[in-house]
Amino acid sequence: MSVGTRSTLDGQLEPVAGALGTPIRGPRALTGDRSRFWQLAYNIARSEFKLKFFGSALGYLWQLMRPLLLFGVLYVFFVEIFHVDRAKGAAAHAYGAQLLGSIVLFTFFSEATTGAVRSVVDRENLVRKIQFPRLAIPVSVVLLGLFNLGLNLVVVLIFAVISGVKPTLTWLELPVIVAFLTVFSTGVAMLLSALFVRFRDIQPIWEVGSQILFYCSPVIIPVETVRERLVPNQDAFKHFLYHLYMLNPLAVAFQELRHAMINPHTLSAAQASGSWQALLGPVALVAIVFALGFLVFNRAAPHIAEDL
Amino acid sequence: MGDSPKSKSGDLALAAHGLHKTFKIPEERSHTLKERALHPFRRSRYERLEALKDISFAVERGEFFGIVGRNGSGKSTLLKCLAGIYRADRGEIWCEGRMSTFIELGVGFNPDLAAYDNVTLNGIMLGLSPREARARYERVIEFAELEEFQDLKLKNYSSGMHVRLAFSVAIQVDAEILLIDEVLAVGDAGFQQKCFDVFNRMRDEGRTIVFVTHDMSAVNRFCHRAMLLERGELVALGEPTQVADKYLEVSFGREIGYTELAGDVPRVGDGAARVSDVWLGDMPDTRATIAPQSQPTTLKALVTFNTTVRDPAVTMAIHNEDHQPVIVGNTVIEQEHSGVFHAGEQVVFAFSFHNMLAPGRYEPSFTVSHRGGGLSVIDRYQGGFSFVVTGSVASGGLVEVPVQTEITNHGHLDLQHQTIA
What we know:
The complex is a heterodimer.
Chain A: E1 5-7, E2 13-15, E3 22-23, H1 34-54, H2 59-81, H3 95-122, H4 124-129, H5 136-162, H6 174-198, H7 202-216, H8 223-230, H9 236-247, H10 249-262, H11 269-273, H12 280-300, H13 304-307
Antiparallel strand pairs in A: 1-2
Chain B: E1 12-26, H1 33-38, E2 46-60, E3 64-69, H2 75-83, E4 90-95, E5 99-102, H3 115-125, H4 130-135, H5 137-144, H6 159-171, E6 177-181, H7 189-204, E7 208-213, H8 216-222, E8 225-230, E9 233-238, H9 240-253, E10 273-280, E11 290-292, E12 296-305, E13 309-310, E14 313-319, E15 325-330, H10 331-334, E16 340-341, E17 346-354, E18 360-369, E19 377-382, E20 387-390, H11 413-420
Parallel strand pairs in B: 3-7, 3-8, 5-6, 6-7, 11-20
Antiparallel strand pairs in B: 1-2, 1-4, 8-9, 10-12, 12-17, 13-16, 14-15, 14-18, 18-19, 18-20
């Protein structure tokens, strides 16, 4: 190791290029030590979860309240008053559970992404004072969303069983659906949290954006209904609209959850899209969003501490 | 500190070569997409702040290395570059071994969580694995002396308890290289002593410590070597005592711009004579503003007489920053009959003493008065000139008088009884 130094005239050590083992290149999105990255992300998420869970006497209940309240309101309006579910015969069975499942999935997406927007800026203190893989912050927000999703899905399943849904083998698709949605949410979370450091109006923009996504996804109005209105028509524009509608990764995930978990009479994501090959569109979109999010975050990571 | 346990082979723990860091401070920051969209071609103007300019240094394994500098000298920026929190614009940094940074204590502490969660999370943040962090919890609580309070949420802790907990977590991190930014000045006296003990222990264990501070006495106490930064440049590197001298010089020396007699200084006295110039050293043209400690020092005052004055007395008083006179000299005792001075004559009164002042800034005052009943004041000069005493000895007293100590062991009490018997 002494090769790396030479003594100057006044006896001080002066480093010579290439002297020591590990070069320090400043903060990055990810470092070589992956286990540390996951430990950090997991533990940040865990402490946040604990805060929500044990922060109040009815911790878990409050956590459930948001999707349940939304569900209650939507159910009363769209099912009891407007009968959205009525037209489609067998597909309408257990519409309540379908609705709740979609709401729960959307809640996950919404929590993960809107929570990520401010996450890096809100953890300014950490970013400016500690060296760690920066990506751990938005990823921890997604993990926190996953914890909540896990609990909420239990409620969905209970609700489904009460509504008369029988467990089937297709339930095994659930991890795939959740993974698909998680990759998409992570991509959006990385993109938004990195952009928010420099553009503070990302927050209101995304609030509106996620609202739009909510109404553009088959949460309230089932895919079958949308399809009935758009596809039999000869109008090419309406066909295009429908394809655009099914390009939405949220639509694919929600519809597949309906089909695989709650009511097999509903269209599967592939059937709704027209073919298995058509599913490549939303998959490619998720891959693009994830890659773009990572690239943007990776580029911003070295300067986040200064730009805050 | 020469007899340190550092290795003789010159192993390096940390090295930096040619570091540059410039911050771009936007004059008017467009923080939103809207502004960008409305003014796409408006280039945001930046003010460039060079925080670090060509910094190169190396720290040996097992060395306690101090980085000192005034506020805004770039020392914290340097530490953040070393820690990997900022990316240096140019230059390279290498380190050998696990490194941990303490820029602030208790980073990421959450007030709504109890000690256990905060300790483990903070430990993981500082580089421990979750298992290590949990295993060390008991030791952390014990060191922080918070056994009775461990179930409380952190928001119910006093600030002292908070700091103790944070410090305890920090020292449980067994990194080979520690980067520490002025976290010493925390807690009550008892806890501070404990912190000092820990730093000594770490030093003796042969860990490499890089310590950023503006407290020179801490540097003198702990550091093997130190480095002085001033406006982003490396000014001095070497023995702590030398760096300390240089530090006092840059801290005080540069801002002394008012050695000329200020016209608006309020003067008292009947005006029969006037102190027209005051300086440090032998000649007025040297204009020294630094008086090194433990050296013969001379302060001189030039007095211009306006009328004939017989046997005037001149008193010099050196005031410290608290405006207390620390050294007072008077011509009355040694030269009662100073002579007769006529109008237009200029006379230099010199006061020499061995400089035993503690390091710091001092302001001399000169009073010319009539001899005899009541010493009526002719002119008093104060407030136009100050000088700085540099030196590494800062015992805490107003003056640094050499003190001899002696320890005599009188043996055991019962032995004494035997000899008496």
